UniProtKB/TrEMBL annotation:
Keywords: Antiport, Cell membrane, Ion transport, Membrane, Transmembrane, Transmembrane helix, Transport. This is Multidrug-efflux transporter. Coiled coil: none annotated. One of its GO terms (cellular component) is plasma membrane. The keyword Chaperone does not apply. One of its GO terms (biological process) is monoatomic ion transport. The chain crosses the membrane at residues 21-45, 65-89, 101-122, 142-161, 173-194, 200-225, 246-275, 281-308, 328-346, 366-383, 395-414, 420-441. It is found in: Cell inner membrane.
Length: 462
């Protein structure tokens, strides 16, 4: 029955003339999903702004540690998308379900291991940024309370990934919508102690938001467990070793890439922190604002990875190649449009987020700089998404390493050593994304990624 559904869907896609239409059909719900996710981070910063500049810096620090954990899981989700989409495109429903089940089990183990330092040593993690004692203590509380819910986040990510890999991008969106609303409301209530609730400040933002998100995730898992979605649970503590090998082979470079990115971001954050709490807070506010056009590009990347995987699984490499170029053009238009709007209203946005004039001025500069990187970031999302959808996760890792080390960290360190202002630190991000874009364009045009091996041998379940 599952294979019949897949076959009918693939025939429908084969008749679909517009590649752009199919990219957009998959991209827009993913874009909305990521905009909702970004809204949570944005509102966390906005809530913290009501508590002062130190609270903004604390939430920024907490988010960065949380994203380290999430980024490692995202590496696994990249592999899961490639494997599940390839099986789905080849009409192998049972293999797709086993791959999704295996990815979920692996994600839970990874999330459990990564949660240990977050729960045991939050103060030491927060101390890595060299902020003042008050900010460091507040950040530690945020890290601890948010870390309690890492397993729920892992489950949500993997089930959502499995559904998107089959083309069902609406179901995860529905659940994320309710999660976003409850996350912001609960975070606000506990931060300021509304009604009978205690005043918890920065820690309350994390506890309230994490608890609300976990409630919605629990409902998501229950619906999936009861077979309500197109891809169903295996319901056994089994691992398909063929699927696991595919996942780990593809996930290895993707996880490494995310680890490199997050460690480098931590180092970059530490450099920015040397310029003081206000510069650090401005960087955090700026990231929360420019995340909106960025997640639009991420949505196109997810859609591209899904379509490329399905089309290669169905034996249509020409359409896979075409998908990447169409996605790039669409991502460029969308991201440039949003970034221009944001740059035009940069001062108003910064003033809305925080009343401190120095922090607001630094935030405006950061917005201008990151808006300049949008064309290069569009290349990163669209073309790297296509490569990952084909199982080529090694080259994006290489491009990321070159960009972030030689385009960001070394120039930033040099600027700091020379005593240059924080504006130069912000500016090096343009070089980072330019190097990545050039490398990804060269790799994509080579077409070498279209013929990578993919293991379809029967798996062994234990």
């Amino acid at each position: 029955m599952g294979s019949q559904k897949i076959t009918e869907e693939n025939h429908r896609l084969a008749r679909h003339e517009s590649t752009s239409g199919r990219v957009w059909q998959l991209a827009w719900p993913t874009i909305i999903s990521n905009l909702l996710f970004t809204t949570v981070g944005f509102m966390h910063i906005k809530i913290a702004a009501g508590l002062g500049t130190s609270a903004v810096a604390a939430v920024t620090t907490g988010h960065r540690i949380f994203f380290v954990v999430q980024a490692i899981l995202m590496g696994l989700s990249v592999a899961a998308t490639a494997v599940i989409a390839r099986h789905w495109g080849a009409n192998e429903a049972s293999r797709a379900e086993m791959a999704s089940w295996t990815a979920l089990l692996l994600a839970m183990v990874i999330a459990g291991v990564l949660s240990i330092p977050v729960l045991v040593a939050p103060l030491q993690l927060a101390g890595l940024f060299g902020l003042d004692p008050e900010t460091t203590t507040a950040a530690a509380g945020f890290i601890f309370w948010l870390g309690i819910f890492n397993l729920f986040s892992a489950a949500n990510m993997m089930i959502g990934t499995a559904l998107r890999a089959t083309g069902d991008v609406l179901t995860p969106l529905y659940f994320l919508f309710f999660s976003t609303i409850l996350n912001v409301v609960f975070g606000y209530l506990l931060a300021f102690g509304i009604g009978p609730l205690p005043v918890m400040g920065v820690a309350g933002v994390a506890l309230g938001g994490g608890a609300a998100g976990s409630l919605v995730t629990s409902a998501f898992v229950v619906c999936w467990w009861r077979g309500k979605f197109v891809i169903r649970p295996v319901r056994r503590l089994n691992i398909d070793w063929s699927a696991a090998r595919n996942l780990m082979r593809i996930a290895g470079p993707a996880v490494t890439e995310q680890a490199v990115v997050q460690v480098a971001f931590l180092a970059f954050f530490a450099i920015v922190a040397q310029y003081g709490t206000k510069a650090f807070a401005a960087y955090g506010i700026g990231i929360s604002l420019v995340a909106f056009p960025i997640v639009v590009g991420f949505g196109f990347g997810v859609a591209t990875a899904t379509l490329v995987g399905q089309q290669l699984g169905a034996g249509r490499p020409d359409r896979a190649m075409k998908t990447g170029w169409r996605s790039l053009r669409m991502a460029l238009v969308a991201m440039l449009t949003l970034s221009l709007i944001m740059a035009w209203h940069a001062e108003s946005l910064a003033s809305f987020m925080i009343t401190d004039p120095e922090v607001a001025s630094l935030t405006v500069t950061f917005i201008y700089v990151i808006c300049l990187t949008q064309p290069m970031m569009a290349c990163d999302f669209a073309l790297a998404g296509a490569l990952r959808g084909a199982g080529d996760t090694r080259f994006p890792l290489f491009a990321t390493f070159v960009g972030i080390i030689f385009g960001r960290l070394l120039p930033a360190w040099l600027c700091q050593s020379l005593g240059l202002s924080v504006f130069w630190i912000f500016g090096v991000m343009v070089l980072d994304y330019t190097l990545k874009a050039i490398m990804l364009l060269h790799r994509y045009r080579s077409k070498k990624w279209l013929n990578l091996p993919f293991d379809r041998s029967p798996g062994t379940a234990l």
